[in-house]
Amino acid sequence: MKALTFKRYSKSPEIGFTQVPRPTIKPDELLVEIHAAGLNPIDNMIPTGMFKPVLKFELPAVMGSDLAGIVIEVGSAVTKFKVGDAIFASLFDLGNGSITEFAAVPERVAAQKPDTLDFVQAASIPMVGLTSWQALKERANIKSGQKIFIPAGSGGIGTFAIQLAKYLGAKVATTTSTGNVDMVRKLGADEVIDYKKQEFEQVLSSYDLVLGTTRGDAIEKSVGILKPGGKIVSLIGPLDKAFANARRMNFFLTFVFGMMSRKIMRLAKKKNISYSFLFVRPDGAQLNEIGNLLKTERIKPVIDKVFPFEHAKQALEYLAQGRAKGKVVVKIK
Asked: What integer pLDDT is reported at residue 142 of this predicted model?
């Protein structure tokens, strides 16, 4: 079968189409004919080797994580799905990818595709949906009336996280460029900062949570806008000891991650706030709950551009430019 793969970890990872064997499923897996694959920024980071100590792949590795498609075979231990079911899922951190014609999907990470969404819309959801859910509900336990800062509101994570935060009853601030101000307001943002005209740390104060979504010094600046007892949940690092311990990493990597996060930990301690790094995990049960919100249109997919399968590499290059308003999706079938 045809798949978009990378052949090595480097600045030139040789990304291109390759013929790879069709998966053989295990008893607890589904064989899924993929109709669409959603792209995420980490898909471009993985081939550089940035996450090589954390994410394990056999090379050449199929790229992508998010998918939507039809179940064409079920393993002998599968109980929740049958042949013909339309599902969506994330394969992130499972060692295989989604920009391909077929994939083996563990039953535990899959959910029924909401009837209200087509395959392209459904494929845009898993990673941004699960990341937002795990950050806002699980890690931060957001309550109605709390104030949340979600930078980069027009991006893939931002467009979903703003909607989820508003559903949870929070007041949301975000940053975006001049042309996207109206867009993020329509998603529910209460306070919108045009980063070309203002610095967020000069405008915001007494916030309960910062969702770290932008690189550079934004995480450190975020410390100043939080109230005592506030939280930073970062999706972009620095990685911390708690993450290393949760993944049972060796002493050396635990030490390295501790050093990487030492500065932000020190700043957080001074302000009596907490910092943690979040690495999303696939979870079919959570995805099913997210699907229920999508069915009732309390949250809607935001898609910037759809590329045909044969232009999947160009789709990744487009995403890497950092200008997408919402998600980029590859339509495979």
From this structure: 95
- Give the whole-angstrom CA distance, residue 258 versus residue 243: 9
Question: 297 with 251, same domain?
Answer: no
Q: Is residue 134 part of a domain?
A: no
What does the pLDDT look like over 98-154, one tens digit per residue?
Answer: 999 999 999 999 999 999 999 999 999 999 999 999 999 999 999 999 999 999 999
Any bridge partners for residue 193, and if so which? 175
**pTM (predicted TM-score):** 0.94
Closest CA to 157 of 195, 239, 213, 114: 213
Cis peptide, bond prior to residue 27, ω within 30 of zero: no
- Number of structural domains found in the chain: 2
Q: Are residues 108 and 190 in the same domain?
A: no
Please identify, among 250, 277, 304, the residue that sits at the C-terminal boundary of a domain: 277
Which pLDDT band, with edges at 50, 70 and 90, does 192 fall under? very high
Q: Where does 43-183 show beta strands of DSSP type E? A: 61-62, 66-74, 86-90, 102-106, 110-112, 147-150, 171-176
Q: How confident is the model at residue 54 (pLDDT cuts 50, 70, 90)?
A: confident
Same domain, 193 and 105: no
To which H or E segment does residue 315 belong? helix 312-320
53 and 181 in a single domain? The answer is no
Same domain assignment for residues 153 and 244: yes
